[in-house]
Automatic annotation (TrEMBL):
Keywords linked to the UniProt accession: Cytoplasm, Isomerase, Porphyrin biosynthesis, Pyridoxal phosphate
Subcellular location: Cytoplasm
Name of the protein in question: Glutamate-1-semialdehyde 2,1-aminomutase
Organism, as annotated: Georgenia halotolerans
Residues bearing PTM N6-(pyridoxal phosphate)lysine: 275
Length: 441
């Protein structure tokens, strides 16, 4: 197969490490040459040769409404005409914080940053500042951005590359993070019984989607809440990926309405948001209990700042996105995700490829292998045991058919309100040949 992107990829690798600005984009685990994109509209992206693909990456989550929604683009253009960045407070920040709190009341106060990484980094510092304790607890396979303390056994690109963590993280930093298996309340109970008085926070993805999709067992998040409270540790719910995507109030909102398998009402101390809340422009947020949030500078002693934080283009895109993301949008994304994930399972069944399609709200991914098919995947260790070798052939067959999947088996598939019947049908029509490719792999 000719590789029209080879030349630009070579040029990219000469000046950018790996040729990309974020590792998974390099197609490392699926092989081949990444598509360099020129434009994106609705459910489709177009590469520099003009070839179009139905997109199931959607910028890794922000594109809830589809690419370049006209009203979001107009809001950004209007904001841009008024100035690109002020380094001073704006009304739009206040409105966006109010919009976040209206959907997630437990986010009583909100601080805007530019990336999810900054949000979780700040959450960790705030938790340590608030409790006077040093230790963090995270779960293997959960990804919280490239924060030193949170890279151990992380998901996403760290999982794709099969790394235990990252070079350059000091031993001291790693020693302050305890990594536990996901979906294992007993492991957390044991750690807290022993060292609970040293734990500043437990951080968890609201519904993990960075080791593939591994939903929390019913009642897990509520149990994390109960245990952390018992030991005076904070609970940080990372909704960077799930927030405003799986429902109007994120995964937390689904659990409060009994739709995420939740059994009781509960609130974390802190939330992190990103992706959808910035509508595709760099913006993320930390939110939570007002007494904790008021520990952030300038109100309190925990320092945090950002030259471009609350950037007017980003707040305009975020506000427009949240205004447009009504119940109809979520119903559409849910239905499209159901159709595609059902068709994915049927296509693999038809070819006798052992697998399990795992879902968390409108997020889903496929786990290959007998064990996954039989028992499902509940943890990172189980996710890593899958037959990941089947994915590259599957991925490239879909790409050939004009469907761009996430270039790693450890990532969720993202649908949007712009995935209309034509886009969904193109995905569904491509699945049987991809399943055959996976069967032969
Ligand atoms: N937390 C979660 C759950 C994420 O999925 C991500 C990114 N995929 C992050 C944090 C980090 O966000 P960012 O890439 O914007 O730094």
């Amino acid at each position: 197969m000719s590789e029209p992107m080879q030349e630009i990829f070579d040029r990219a690798r000469a000046v950018i490490p790996g040729g990309v600005s974020s590792p998974v984009r390099a197609y490392g685990s699926v092989g081949g040459v990444p598509r360099f994109l020129a434009s994106a509209h609705g459910p489709r992206v177009r590469d520099t040769t003009g070839r179009e693909y139905v997109d199931l990456v959607m910028s890794w989550g922000p594109g809830l409404l589809g690419h370049a929604h006209p009203e979001v683009v107009a809001a950004v253009q209007e904001a841009a005409a008024r100035g690109l960045s002020f380094g001073a407070p704006t009304v739009a920040e206040v409105e966006l914080a109010e919009a976040v709190r209206a959907r997630v009341p437990a986010a009583q106060k909100v601080r805007f940053v530019s990336t999810g990484t900054e949000a979780t980094m700040t959450a960790a510092r705030l938790a340590r500042g608030a409790t006077g304790r040093d230790l963090l607890v995270k779960f293997a396979g959960c990804y919280h951005g490239h924060v030193d303390a949170l890279l151990a056994e992380a998901g996403s690109g760290v999982a794709t590359a099969g790394l235990p963590g990252s070079a350059g993280v000091t031993a001291a930093s790693a020693a302050e993070t305890i990594v536990l298996p996901y979906n294992d309340v007993a492991a957390l109970e044991a750690v807290l019984a022993e060292r609970g008085d040293q734990v500043a926070a437990v951080i968890t993805e609201a519904a993990p989607a960075n080791m593939g999709v591994v939903p929390p067992a019913p009642g897990l998040n509520a149990a994390l809440r109960r245990l952390t409270a018992e030991h005076g540790a904070l609970l940080v719910l990372d909704e960077v990926l799930t927030g405003f995507r799986v429902g109007p109030a994120g995964w937390w909102g689904l659990e409060q309405h009994g739709r995420g398998g939740g059994t009781e009402a509960w609130e974390p101390d802190l939330f992190t948001f990103g992706k959808v809340v910035g509508g595709g422009i760099p913006l993320a947020a930390l939110g939570g209990r007002a007494d904790l949030m008021d520990l952030l500078a300038p109100a309190g002693p925990v320092y945090q700042a950002g030259t471009l934080s609350g950037n007017p283009l980003a707040t305009a895109a975020g506000l427009a996105t949240l205004r447009l993301a009504d119940e109809g949008v979520y119903a559409h994304v849910d239905a499209a995700a159901r159709t595609v994930s059902d068709a994915l399972g049927s296509a693999l069944d038809a070819e006798g490829v052992p697998h399990r399609v795992q879902r968390a709200g409108n997020l889903f991914s496929v786990m290959f292998g007998e064990a996954a098919a039989r028992d499902g995947v509940r943890s990172y260790a189980e996710a890593q045991q899958q037959d990941a070798f089947r994915y590259p052939a599957f991925f490239h067959a879909m790409l050939e058919a004009g469907v761009a999947l996430p270039p790693s088996v450890f990532e969720a598939w993202f649908l949007s309100a712009a995935h209309d019947d034509a886009a969904v049908e193109q995905i569904v029509a491509a699945l049987p040949a991809a399943a055959r490719a996976a069967a032969r792999a």
